[in-house]
Design goal:
binds 4-diphosphocytidyl-2-C-methyl-D-erythritol; globular; 4-stranded antiparallel sheet; Ribosomal Protein S5, domain 2; binds adenosine-5'-triphosphate; Alpha-Beta Plaits; alpha+beta; Ribsml_uS5_D2-typ_fold_subgr; nucleotide-binding; isoprene biosynthesis; transferase; 11 strands
Protein backbone atom coordinates (compact mmCIF):
# COMPACT_ATOMS: atom_id res chain seq x y z
CA UNK A 1 0.00 0.00 0.00
CA UNK A 2 1.28 3.53 -0.72
CA UNK A 3 0.82 6.43 1.75
CA UNK A 4 -0.83 9.83 1.16
CA UNK A 5 2.24 11.98 1.93
CA UNK A 6 5.96 11.51 2.23
CA UNK A 7 8.52 13.70 4.02
CA UNK A 8 12.28 13.71 3.30
CA UNK A 9 15.15 15.75 4.81
CA UNK A 10 17.27 17.70 2.27
CA UNK A 11 20.70 18.12 3.91
CA UNK A 12 23.21 20.86 3.07
CA UNK A 13 25.87 19.56 0.65
CA UNK A 14 29.44 20.48 1.54
CA UNK A 15 32.29 20.19 -1.01
CA UNK A 16 35.29 19.46 1.24
CA UNK A 17 37.41 19.59 -1.93
CA UNK A 18 36.53 20.82 -5.41
CA UNK A 19 39.15 20.35 -8.13
CA UNK A 20 38.35 21.66 -11.61
CA UNK A 21 40.25 19.39 -13.99
CA UNK A 22 39.05 20.44 -17.43
CA UNK A 23 36.20 21.76 -19.51
CA UNK A 24 33.93 19.98 -22.00
CA UNK A 25 33.05 21.37 -25.43
CA UNK A 26 29.60 22.36 -24.09
CA UNK A 27 31.23 24.60 -21.45
CA UNK A 28 30.54 22.35 -18.44
CA UNK A 29 33.56 21.76 -16.22
CA UNK A 30 35.09 18.43 -15.24
CA UNK A 31 35.24 18.09 -11.46
CA UNK A 32 36.81 15.93 -8.79
CA UNK A 33 35.17 16.61 -5.44
CA UNK A 34 34.82 15.05 -1.99
CA UNK A 35 31.29 15.75 -0.79
CA UNK A 36 29.71 15.24 2.63
CA UNK A 37 26.29 16.14 4.02
CA UNK A 38 25.30 18.15 7.12
CA UNK A 39 22.60 17.56 9.72
CA UNK A 40 21.19 21.02 8.91
CA UNK A 41 18.98 21.35 5.85
CA UNK A 42 15.55 21.84 4.32
CA UNK A 43 12.57 19.49 4.60
CA UNK A 44 10.25 18.57 1.76
CA UNK A 45 6.81 17.02 2.09
CA UNK A 46 5.10 15.64 -0.98
CA UNK A 47 1.42 14.64 -1.16
CA UNK A 48 -0.72 13.17 -3.96
CA UNK A 49 -2.73 15.93 -5.72
CA UNK A 50 -4.73 16.64 -8.89
CA UNK A 51 -2.41 19.45 -9.93
CA UNK A 52 1.08 20.70 -9.06
CA UNK A 53 1.52 23.19 -6.22
CA UNK A 54 4.43 24.41 -4.10
CA UNK A 55 4.33 26.17 -0.74
CA UNK A 56 7.58 27.48 0.73
CA UNK A 57 7.75 27.99 4.52
CA UNK A 58 10.51 28.44 7.10
CA UNK A 59 13.17 31.00 8.06
CA UNK A 60 14.80 31.14 4.58
CA UNK A 61 11.58 31.16 2.50
CA UNK A 62 11.86 34.81 1.39
CA UNK A 63 12.67 35.13 -2.31
CA UNK A 64 12.56 31.40 -3.06
CA UNK A 65 10.46 30.82 -6.23
CA UNK A 66 7.16 28.93 -5.78
CA UNK A 67 6.69 27.97 -9.44
CA UNK A 68 8.49 25.98 -12.15
CA UNK A 69 11.68 27.98 -11.51
CA UNK A 70 12.02 26.01 -8.28
CA UNK A 71 14.03 22.79 -8.67
CA UNK A 72 11.48 20.99 -6.45
CA UNK A 73 8.78 21.67 -9.02
CA UNK A 74 11.02 20.56 -11.90
CA UNK A 75 11.94 17.36 -10.03
CA UNK A 76 8.25 16.48 -9.54
CA UNK A 77 7.55 17.19 -13.23
CA UNK A 78 10.47 14.96 -14.20
CA UNK A 79 9.02 12.20 -11.99
CA UNK A 80 5.78 12.56 -13.93
CA UNK A 81 3.05 12.88 -11.27
CA UNK A 82 1.24 16.00 -10.00
CA UNK A 83 1.93 16.56 -6.29
CA UNK A 84 1.45 19.19 -3.61
CA UNK A 85 4.93 20.06 -2.31
CA UNK A 86 5.74 21.85 0.93
CA UNK A 87 9.32 23.07 1.16
CA UNK A 88 10.43 24.08 4.66
CA UNK A 89 13.45 26.24 3.81
CA UNK A 90 16.30 26.52 6.34
CA UNK A 91 19.34 26.84 4.02
CA UNK A 92 20.36 30.14 2.41
CA UNK A 93 19.92 30.15 -1.41
CA UNK A 94 22.70 30.53 -4.00
CA UNK A 95 25.12 29.60 -1.23
CA UNK A 96 27.26 26.74 -2.61
CA UNK A 97 25.62 24.18 -0.32
CA UNK A 98 23.30 22.70 -2.94
CA UNK A 99 20.04 24.03 -1.54
CA UNK A 100 17.99 23.66 -4.71
CA UNK A 101 19.78 20.46 -5.72
CA UNK A 102 19.28 18.82 -2.33
CA UNK A 103 15.60 19.86 -2.35
CA UNK A 104 15.16 18.36 -5.84
CA UNK A 105 16.81 15.09 -4.78
CA UNK A 106 14.59 14.99 -1.66
CA UNK A 107 11.47 15.46 -3.83
CA UNK A 108 12.57 12.55 -6.05
CA UNK A 109 13.21 10.32 -3.02
CA UNK A 110 9.90 11.35 -1.43
CA UNK A 111 8.04 10.58 -4.68
CA UNK A 112 9.78 7.21 -4.96
CA UNK A 113 8.37 6.37 -1.51
CA UNK A 114 4.95 7.88 -2.23
CA UNK A 115 4.38 6.16 -5.58
CA UNK A 116 6.35 2.99 -4.82
CA UNK A 117 8.48 3.12 -7.97
CA UNK A 118 12.01 4.35 -8.76
CA UNK A 119 12.64 7.65 -10.58
CA UNK A 120 13.15 6.56 -14.18
CA UNK A 121 14.85 9.76 -15.38
CA UNK A 122 18.34 11.21 -15.16
CA UNK A 123 18.96 13.27 -11.98
CA UNK A 124 21.80 15.10 -13.80
CA UNK A 125 19.22 16.77 -16.06
CA UNK A 126 18.03 18.72 -12.98
CA UNK A 127 21.54 19.97 -12.10
CA UNK A 128 25.13 18.79 -11.66
CA UNK A 129 24.72 18.44 -7.89
CA UNK A 130 21.50 16.41 -7.97
CA UNK A 131 23.13 12.93 -8.49
CA UNK A 132 25.32 13.30 -5.37
CA UNK A 133 22.37 14.74 -3.44
CA UNK A 134 20.41 11.55 -4.26
CA UNK A 135 23.08 9.67 -2.27
CA UNK A 136 23.02 12.30 0.54
CA UNK A 137 26.03 10.71 2.20
CA UNK A 138 29.84 11.03 1.86
CA UNK A 139 30.85 10.48 -1.77
CA UNK A 140 33.37 11.36 -4.45
CA UNK A 141 31.82 13.29 -7.35
CA UNK A 142 33.49 13.23 -10.78
CA UNK A 143 32.98 14.14 -14.43
CA UNK A 144 30.47 17.03 -14.47
CA UNK A 145 28.67 15.55 -11.44
CA UNK A 146 27.19 12.30 -12.77
CA UNK A 147 29.86 9.89 -11.48
CA UNK A 148 29.20 9.43 -7.77
CA UNK A 149 31.16 6.93 -5.66
CA UNK A 150 29.95 6.52 -2.05
CA UNK A 151 32.78 6.66 0.52
CA UNK A 152 33.20 5.36 4.03
CA UNK A 153 34.40 8.37 6.05
CA UNK A 154 34.25 9.22 9.77
CA UNK A 155 31.63 11.79 10.83
CA UNK A 156 33.33 15.21 10.94
CA UNK A 157 32.42 18.05 13.31
CA UNK A 158 32.04 21.37 11.46
CA UNK A 159 30.86 24.96 11.66
CA UNK A 160 29.22 26.42 8.53
CA UNK A 161 29.07 30.17 7.83
CA UNK A 162 27.36 32.07 5.02
CA UNK A 163 27.79 35.87 4.90
CA UNK A 164 24.30 36.24 3.36
CA UNK A 165 25.63 37.39 0.02
CA UNK A 166 24.32 35.31 -2.93
CA UNK A 167 26.95 34.06 -5.37
CA UNK A 168 25.93 32.92 -8.88
CA UNK A 169 27.63 29.60 -9.78
CA UNK A 170 28.15 30.38 -13.55
CA UNK A 171 29.95 33.66 -12.71
CA UNK A 172 32.44 31.84 -10.48
CA UNK A 173 33.23 29.16 -13.10
CA UNK A 174 33.65 31.95 -15.68
CA UNK A 175 36.18 33.78 -13.47
CA UNK A 176 38.46 30.71 -13.13
CA UNK A 177 42.06 31.52 -14.11
CA UNK A 178 42.89 27.85 -15.01
CA UNK A 179 40.60 24.99 -15.92
CA UNK A 180 43.16 22.17 -16.27
CA UNK A 181 44.12 21.63 -12.65
CA UNK A 182 45.32 18.40 -11.02
CA UNK A 183 42.67 15.98 -9.69
CA UNK A 184 42.50 15.02 -6.01
CA UNK A 185 45.42 12.99 -4.66
CA UNK A 186 44.62 9.33 -3.87
CA UNK A 187 42.39 9.11 -0.81
CA UNK A 188 44.22 8.19 2.43
CA UNK A 189 44.45 4.48 3.30
CA UNK A 190 43.37 5.22 6.86
CA UNK A 191 39.88 6.61 7.26
CA UNK A 192 40.65 7.98 10.75
CA UNK A 193 39.68 11.66 11.11
CA UNK A 194 43.35 12.68 11.60
CA UNK A 195 44.39 11.05 8.33
CA UNK A 196 41.42 12.65 6.54
CA UNK A 197 42.35 16.11 7.93
CA UNK A 198 45.98 15.65 6.79
CA UNK A 199 44.89 14.61 3.30
CA UNK A 200 42.32 17.42 3.04
CA UNK A 201 44.96 20.04 3.84
CA UNK A 202 46.79 19.07 0.62
CA UNK A 203 43.64 19.33 -1.55
CA UNK A 204 41.85 22.47 -2.81
CA UNK A 205 38.68 24.19 -3.83
CA UNK A 206 39.68 25.67 -7.20
CA UNK A 207 36.56 27.86 -7.16
CA UNK A 208 37.64 29.59 -3.92
CA UNK A 209 40.06 32.19 -5.42
CA UNK A 210 37.64 33.37 -8.17
CA UNK A 211 34.74 33.39 -5.68
CA UNK A 212 36.76 35.48 -3.21
CA UNK A 213 37.50 37.89 -6.07
CA UNK A 214 33.77 38.28 -6.78
CA UNK A 215 32.66 38.29 -3.13
CA UNK A 216 35.21 39.73 -0.65
CA UNK A 217 32.99 38.72 2.30
CA UNK A 218 34.20 35.12 1.71
CA UNK A 219 37.73 36.13 2.78
CA UNK A 220 36.28 37.72 5.91
CA UNK A 221 34.36 34.52 6.73
CA UNK A 222 37.46 32.37 6.15
CA UNK A 223 39.45 34.70 8.42
CA UNK A 224 36.88 34.34 11.21
CA UNK A 225 36.68 30.54 10.85
CA UNK A 226 40.48 30.16 10.72
CA UNK A 227 40.85 31.95 14.04
CA UNK A 228 38.48 29.63 15.97
CA UNK A 229 40.13 27.52 18.70
CA UNK A 230 41.10 24.04 17.52
CA UNK A 231 40.23 24.53 13.84
CA UNK A 232 41.75 21.80 11.64
CA UNK A 233 40.79 23.24 8.25
CA UNK A 234 38.76 26.20 6.90
CA UNK A 235 37.65 26.25 3.24
CA UNK A 236 34.82 27.35 0.95
CA UNK A 237 32.12 24.91 -0.25
CA UNK A 238 31.05 24.65 -3.90
CA UNK A 239 30.95 28.00 -5.67
CA UNK A 240 30.47 29.86 -2.36
CA UNK A 241 29.85 31.88 -0.44
CA UNK A 242 29.33 29.33 2.39
CA UNK A 243 32.55 28.26 4.11
CA UNK A 244 33.17 25.48 6.61
CA UNK A 245 35.63 24.84 9.42
CA UNK A 246 36.45 21.30 10.62
CA UNK A 247 37.25 20.29 14.20
CA UNK A 248 38.15 17.28 16.32
CA UNK A 249 35.07 15.44 17.58
CA UNK A 250 35.35 16.74 21.18
CA UNK A 251 35.46 20.47 20.26
CA UNK A 252 32.59 22.59 21.72
CA UNK A 253 31.44 23.87 18.33
CA UNK A 254 27.88 24.71 19.45
CA UNK A 255 29.23 27.38 21.83
CA UNK A 256 31.67 28.64 19.15
CA UNK A 257 28.84 28.94 16.64
CA UNK A 258 26.73 30.89 19.17
CA UNK A 259 29.64 33.31 19.81
CA UNK A 260 30.27 33.75 16.07
CA UNK A 261 26.57 34.42 15.44
CA UNK A 262 26.56 37.04 18.24
CA UNK A 263 29.65 38.74 16.78
CA UNK A 264 28.23 38.70 13.21
CA UNK A 265 24.42 38.84 13.54
CA UNK A 266 23.94 39.22 9.76
CA UNK A 267 25.71 35.92 8.98
CA UNK A 268 24.09 32.47 8.81
CA UNK A 269 26.00 30.20 11.22
CA UNK A 270 25.43 26.49 11.97
CA UNK A 271 27.31 23.93 14.06
CA UNK A 272 26.87 20.52 12.43
CA UNK A 273 28.17 16.98 11.93
CA UNK A 274 29.11 15.99 8.38
CA UNK A 275 28.46 12.39 7.28
C1 LIG B 1 29.80 23.98 -8.00
C2 LIG B 1 29.02 22.72 -7.65
O1 LIG B 1 28.02 23.03 -6.69
C3 LIG B 1 29.98 21.73 -7.00
O2 LIG B 1 29.33 20.67 -6.34
C4 LIG B 1 28.37 22.12 -8.84
O3 LIG B 1 29.33 21.84 -9.82
C5 LIG B 1 27.27 23.01 -9.42
O4 LIG B 1 26.09 22.28 -9.29
P1 LIG B 1 24.68 22.88 -9.73
O5 LIG B 1 24.46 24.20 -9.06
O6 LIG B 1 23.68 21.77 -9.53
O7 LIG B 1 24.96 23.13 -11.24
P2 LIG B 1 24.01 23.34 -12.51
O8 LIG B 1 22.72 23.94 -12.08
O9 LIG B 1 24.01 22.07 -13.29
O10 LIG B 1 24.88 24.39 -13.30
C6 LIG B 1 24.95 25.75 -12.97
C7 LIG B 1 26.09 26.38 -13.77
O11 LIG B 1 27.35 26.00 -13.20
C8 LIG B 1 28.31 25.77 -14.21
N1 LIG B 1 28.78 24.36 -14.10
C9 LIG B 1 28.14 23.48 -13.27
C10 LIG B 1 28.62 22.21 -13.13
C11 LIG B 1 29.76 21.82 -13.86
N2 LIG B 1 30.25 20.59 -13.75
N3 LIG B 1 30.36 22.70 -14.67
C12 LIG B 1 29.91 23.98 -14.79
O12 LIG B 1 30.47 24.77 -15.53
C13 LIG B 1 27.64 26.08 -15.52
O13 LIG B 1 27.94 27.43 -15.80
C14 LIG B 1 26.16 25.92 -15.21
O14 LIG B 1 25.37 26.71 -16.03
N1 LIG C 1 14.49 24.79 -3.93
C1 LIG C 1 15.17 25.94 -4.09
N2 LIG C 1 15.71 26.57 -3.03
C2 LIG C 1 16.39 27.73 -3.20
N3 LIG C 1 16.58 28.32 -4.38
C3 LIG C 1 16.09 27.72 -5.47
C4 LIG C 1 15.36 26.52 -5.37
N4 LIG C 1 15.00 26.15 -6.62
C5 LIG C 1 15.48 27.08 -7.46
N5 LIG C 1 16.10 28.04 -6.80
C6 LIG C 1 16.79 29.18 -7.44
O1 LIG C 1 18.13 28.75 -7.68
C7 LIG C 1 19.08 29.74 -7.32
C8 LIG C 1 20.34 29.02 -6.78
O2 LIG C 1 20.05 28.53 -5.50
P1 LIG C 1 20.66 27.19 -4.86
O3 LIG C 1 20.32 27.26 -3.40
O4 LIG C 1 20.23 25.99 -5.59
O5 LIG C 1 22.17 27.46 -4.93
P2 LIG C 1 23.55 27.00 -5.52
O6 LIG C 1 24.57 27.87 -4.85
O7 LIG C 1 23.46 27.00 -7.01
O8 LIG C 1 23.83 25.59 -5.03
P3 LIG C 1 25.10 24.75 -5.47
O9 LIG C 1 25.96 25.57 -6.37
O10 LIG C 1 25.79 24.36 -4.21
O11 LIG C 1 24.45 23.56 -6.14
C9 LIG C 1 18.38 30.63 -6.33
O12 LIG C 1 18.78 31.96 -6.47
C10 LIG C 1 16.87 30.45 -6.62
O13 LIG C 1 16.34 31.49 -7.41
Amino acid sequence: MTSAASEVFAPAKINLTLHVTGRRADGYHLLDSLVMFADVGDRVTVARADHMSLTVTGPMAAGVPTDARNLCWRAAEAFGQPVAITLDKHLPAAAGIGGGSSDAAAVLRAMEQLFGRPFGGDPLSLGADVPVCMVAHAARMQSIGEIVTPLDLPPLRAVLVNPRVEVATPAVFKALARRDNAPMMPLPDSRQADAVFGWLADQRNDLQPPAEGLCPEISQVLGALSSLDGVRLARMSGSGATCFALFDSDTPTEAMARDLQAAFPQWWVAATILT
